[in-house]
Amino acid sequence: MLQMTLILAMFVVLIFPVGKYLYNIAFENKTFADGLFDKIDENIYRFCGIQKKDMTWKQYFIAMLMTNFIMVIIGYLILKIQFIPIFNPNKIEAMEATLSFNTITSFITNTNLQHYSGESGLSYMSQMMVIIFMMFTSGATGFSVAMAFIRGISGKAEGFGNFYVDLIRIITRALLPIAIMVSLILVSQGVPQNLNQNITVSTIDGKLQDIAMGPIAALESIKHLGTNGGGFLGANSSTPLENPNVITNIVEMLSMMLFPGACIITFGYALRDRVKKNNNMIKNKITFIGKDAKVIFCVMLSIFIIGLMTCFISESAQNPIFEKIGLQQSIGNMEGKETRFGIVQSAMFTTVTTAFTTGSVNNMHDTLSPIGGAVPLMNMMLNVVFGGKGVGLMNMLLYVILTVFICGLMIGRTPEYLGKKIEATEMKLAALGIIIHPMLILIFSAMAVIFPCGIAGITNPSHHGLTQVLYEYASSAANNGSGFEGLADNNNFWNITTGLVMLFGRYLPIVVQLAIAGSLLKKSQVNESIGTLKTDSMTFGVTLFVVILIIAALTFFPVMVLGPISEHLIYS
Amino acid sequence: MLVRGGVKMDFIMVGVLILSYLIIKVFSDWAEKEVNKL
């Protein structure tokens, strides 16, 4: 318990300076590092021919979409030619077509679902030019969109900014420097960073074993900072080569939590300055961050802590089946967990990686207890518990708009948010944005349990098998990427369907969110009156929390009953 | 041979990628129309 409290305390302390720094990057305010980074950025703009023009929300989206598309095509080609002897000491062959499709969509959408094992499926060239490259660019893309969204919805800026400028500024000023620092910490703890061939050693049994080498630390840092999650090795952060000890485990967890948490603070600063700009009366009153952001942060943290405690308590309990056969379980359900991490570090990593939609794993989620496994599943189904780098914030704001509308209907107040009227267009888009995510998960899960090619991949019978399927699509739609594992998922059906879910789960909600921000930016500011619903009070926070739970319960409760809840009831 | 593992399937997969991006583009056009109705 003390470990969890300390890590959460470190998280809360760290996100404030980082949130302020991100705010300065997003709104082009002065920072301590401008002297160095301005020169680097200006050279990149000049080299790429980037003009720093403000974009509309649609121009911003199309710039993002086309940039991503070009990266996808180039990345696909690299995966097909990776057999050439350039940075390929392990003589890795070209990747199969549907697996290449799955891999490339997975990494461009910041999902990092892996239907391959890194050590045997990718050359070092692919690891560096496709995987690590996309970990930076997809992370920065998510950030850029979140920054544009904050500019639009807060009304602090006049426009949405410029996608190319945002992308470069976020990589050079935030992701790259912090990734280098994290990499050095990981190297100091024993994570390999080289371009050597794998080492073959004799084990105590006299058998031969390959020890993977390569640029692991470089990938590991951005894997967590960019909430990417795809491991250099198949076993991801459960292997000592990626995550050797408790120190690296804590560093990796904080890396995952840092930027998504900081995005809420960035939003708070934008709201605070908007209020200052619009209301001279309180210009001199010291406010830390906007109150609306505090409410959102508290709701996210509450859901996170409930999930964390549920997972921890479930995993601390004994497995009733092992109990029957007399196995010693004094430290809890250790099946599929690393002894160097134990229950606390494993339960926390599981909750963090799914709440912050990273997707790396330090234990096998398939062997979590049914309720313990339901926590990561629910985090991905909700997709609003911090989420990945601003994406959770954008999703949460869809729920905020819905809550404002419902409250307005219930008590007869005008539906307004941040001084802008919420009307039919915003509601239509918000409803669509909320429904896209469950539709993708439930429709594709239904297809998987109907079609023989889908059923062929399910390796567990009954309720656990359904949970495997749900987890795979929830992970894809939420752009999480963690695997419940146990599915035989490297075949045409699973590669193509999860690829499509990742693409639509990434871009369609972004369209909706940017369109809402665009719509609100066009509207004139409405003065607060007695008829305005307060969205910065804890009462609103509680209502928002309940609305999220009701929507989630209505949407996912039936399928959760058929999956983990039934499994829990049967085996307990 | 430059590309191994079934060139025909590669063309299909690249086609699926292009089609997916086109669907997303069409969706964004629809959203733009909705916003411009105001």
What does this structure look like?
The complex is a heterodimer of chains A (about 575) and B (about 40). Chain A is mostly helical and about 575 residues long. Chain A is about 65% helix and about 0% strand. Chain A has helices at about 1-25, 35-50, 55-80, 95-110, 120, 125-155, 165-190, 215-225, 245-280, 290-315, 320-325, 340-355, 370-380, 390-410, 425-450, 450-455, 460-475, 490-520, 540-570; strands at about 200, 210, 415, 420. In chain A, helix 8 (about 215-225) runs parallel beside helix 9 and helix 10 (about 290-315) runs antiparallel to helix 13 (about 370-380). Chain A is globular. The mean pLDDT of chain A is about 90. With about 40 residues, chain B is mostly helical. Chain B is built from 1 helix and no strands. Chain B starts with 6 loop residues before the first helix and ends with a helix. Chains A and B meet through helix 3, helix 4, helix 15 and helix 18 of A and helix 1 of B.
Name the biggest interface: A-B, 40 and 25 residues
Strand content of chain A: under 5%
**Based on helices, strands and strand pairing, what is the structural class of chain A?**
mainly alpha
Number of E strands of chain B: 0
| Cα shape of chain B | rod-shaped
Cα separation of the termini of chain B: 56 Å
Question: What is the CA-atom radius of gyration of chain B, in angstroms?
Answer: 17 Å
